[in-house]
Amino acid sequence: MNLKQMKNLKTIISCLLTSIGLAVYPQSEDLPFKELKLLAGNTHSHSIMTYSHGEHLQKKEGFVKGDKILYIDSLYVSRPLNTFLKDNWQLFQGLPDKHYSEAKKAGLDFYCVTDHSQEEAFSPSYINNTAWTIAQKHAETASGNAFTAFSGVEHSENNSDNGRGHFNVIGSSSYINALKPGIDIPYFYSWLKKNSENEKTGNPIVVTFNHPEKNQFNNWAYRDKDITDIITLLEIINGHKSHYSGFLGALEKGWKVSPVAGFDNHNYNSIKDFETRTFVLAKSNIQKDILEAMRKRRTYASFDRNLECRYSVNDSLMGSVIPQSHSYEFKIYINDPDTTKPSNKIIKIDIVGDGNKILKSLQPKNPQHRLIWNVTLNQTDVKNYLFIRVWNDMERTEGSIEPVAWLAPVWIEGSSTN
pLDDT tens digits for 248-265? Predict the structure, then answer.
């Protein structure tokens, strides 16, 4: 038997085993795009530079549920209301460098600080603003030795008639105040197109839709090809809550977005407690490679801090746009290294298409911590996009039943949403 025949036999055996619900233990050659590193981090956090709200502040006596905790002044700056600074505030909040230090201790590979653009520290908005310069310097200094720090802003469009919603702008060299008159979503998209690269480093900037509802951002309006290639991520996990309906809403409107998970923490002391992660498949752990991987949508979001996932379709990596084909061959690899925890076994893998339709599902009779699933879908099953959901046996917050991870879609070139 020659090498080709042996590989064909292995594929046949793999398909037979998965068809009857048994796990297939992958060898190294089964790992799609094994040259790419799997990096785990956080894409959304706030330091003390988001002073208007957070755990550094104490509610005033007599505060009742429903009272406002901040207001916008005449300069369109966000300021605290009905709160005051705690005596021991430094136990909860600090500058970006404190966040990066705690992220390193927690074992994260990368960490993004994205303070609100309308905060007092960032006013007025200009490239040499002192707080903005400090934030960028802290990220630069913290990066290295298998850790990458990113500075950015959360652009919070809260006061426009042309749609509302929050975005993270990661790795940019400049920013704008989201609340100033005339700065609405169409204006912001135009600004992003003119500032799609960092002027100092030449690296691409990366933009996420944050904690979206199903019809947010003016029902996902104002999309064109250029902005679709800049806003490439969507925060499907925010804190401990999922926003799956927002992910589906964006996909149905033609946005090509890949899932990420943001802590959205307004402190540093909870970093160690988060289990959620954004995972990125990148060439190496440096800013340029991570940003490029995010732009290419090579991400997934997980409620589990070390769940290893990747897949390819017709030998193209997750996040890709691929040509239409008569068939679509999947190579799916899932591994949870916590083999001493039975609840971390993979109980189901779904391939999901347009309209949240499950096109194919694997439910092993004997769940394993590590699975590889090679499966082929016919052209008639596939329309505009496909993505993967992964399930284990752990309950989420408040006993909810939902996937442990959502993996980047693959889009079909020439489909109606392109």
Answer: 999 999 999 999 999 999
Same domain, 24 and 64: no
- pLDDT band at residue 126, thresholds of 50, 70 and 90? confident
Which stretches does DSSP call E strand in 82-201? 83-85, 110-116, 148-157, 165-170
Contact 113, 99 (CB under 8 A): yes
What is the spatial distance between Cα 204 and Cα 223, in angstroms, rounded to a whole number? 19
In sequence order, which residues have a C-beta less than 8 Å from that of residue 29 and are 6 or more positions away? none
Phi-psi region of 146 (alpha: psi -120 to 50; beta: other; left: phi over 0): left
CA 36 to chain centre: 18
142 and 232 both lie in a single domain: yes
- The answer to whether residues 18 and 94 belong to one domain is no
How many domains is the chain built from? 2
- pTM (two decimals): 0.92
340: tokens are: 């001493």
Q: What is the CATH number of the domain that holds 16?
A: 2.60.40
Q: Of 302, 326, 348, which residue constitutes the final position of a domain?
A: 302
